[in-house]
């Protein structure tokens, strides 16, 4: 499963957003509507399917807890995690503490990023995109050197 695309949505008064149908078709199964949302990087939220969450959790559990960086990352990643469910209307609740973390008030950008979905405050996404787009070619060349 590869998530891609950029979509816009609004957050309702209950703290719910509508996950776009194209992403929703991929992230939920007929038996499982559970998703996991947590603090992301660059002031966004990460949204994972059940399977990807389990895979990511296993990878993080294998990091050495005796080292400071893995310990700190795991604390922040897991303490901000929330299990949600996408309802029949395609809505998903985002808890208030995560909305505060990313400073989402009303409009959001929902983007597919390969193995995860990211949820951004719309204005913050536009600012990030404007800064990152001119560096796209340069970043590509650096990644090809890895």
What CATH architecture would you give?
A: 3-Layer(aba) Sandwich
Helix-residue proportion:
25-40%
Put simply, the count of helices is: 6
Give the ordered list of helices and strands: EEHEEHHEEHEEHH
Reported by name, the CATH topology is: Chemotaxis protein chec
Q: Which CATH C-level class is it?
A: Alpha Beta
Question: Could you name the CATH homologous superfamily?
Answer: Transcriptional regulator MraZ domain
Number of domains: 1
Strand arrangement, largest sheet? 1-7-8-4-3-5
Number of strands: 8
Determine the strand fraction and express it as a percent band: 25-35%
Mean pLDDT: 92
Profile the largest sheet. Answer: 6 strands, antiparallel
Query: What's the end-to-end separation, in Å?
Result: 24 Å
Shape: globular
Report what the structure shows.
With 146 residues, the chain is α+β, with helices and mostly antiparallel strands. It has a single domain, classed as Transcriptional regulator MraZ domain (Chemotaxis protein chec, 3-Layer(aba) Sandwich). It contains 6 helices and 8 strands. The strands form 2 sheets. The protein has a 6-stranded antiparallel β-sheet, with helices on both faces. A hairpin with a 5-residue loop joins strand 3 and strand 4. The longest helix is centred in the middle third of the chain and has 12 residues. The radius of gyration is 16 Å and the shape is globular. The model has no long low-confidence stretch (mean pLDDT 92).
């Amino acid at each position: 499963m590869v998530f891609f695309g950029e979509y816009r949505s609004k957050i309702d008064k209950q703290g719910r957003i509508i996950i776009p149908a194209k992403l929703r078709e991929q992230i939920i199964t007929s038996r499982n509507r559970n998703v996991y949302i947590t603090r992301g990087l660059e002031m966004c939220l990460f949204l994972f399917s059940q399977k990807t969450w389990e895979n990511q959790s296993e990878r993080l559990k294998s990091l050495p807890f005796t080292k400071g960086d893995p310990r700190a990352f795991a604390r922040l990643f897991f303490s901000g995690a929330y299990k949600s469910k996408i309802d029949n209307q395609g809505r998903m609740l985002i808890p208030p503490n995560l909305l505060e973390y990313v400073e989402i008030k009303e409009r959001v950008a929902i983007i597919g990023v390969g193995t995860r979905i990211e949820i951004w405050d719309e204005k913050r996404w536009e600012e990030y995109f404007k800064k990152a787009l001119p560096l796209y070619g340069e970043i590509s060349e650096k990644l090809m050197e890895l």
